[in-house]
Write a structure and sequence with these properties.
Blueprint: E1 2-9, H1 14-29, E2 35-44, E3 47-54, H2 57-75, E4 84-89
Antiparallel strand pairs: 1-3, 1-4, 2-3
Amino acid sequence: MYAAVRRYEGVTDPAEAGRRVAEGFVPLLRQVPGFVAYYWVDAGDGVMVSTSVFSEQAGAEESIQRAADFVRDNLTSLLPNPPQVTAGQVVAAG
């Protein structure tokens, strides 16, 4: 399995960002081959973190590009800063 984690800081409206992600982005992500799971977390203080999990590296990499496109097209006013992106192979899970 592979995961991509994106950390967004300076989020202006976490509730609205969550709604848009749930309604618009999650359905797009589920279409990526190898999709396993997706989580969108409100960490407080204007920080939100997403985690995408895929069975193969290509899916995780595609999720990074789809996220960038979705944010650019739908969330720029809510997520004004570029995310910190970390991706790699899952080496332990529970």
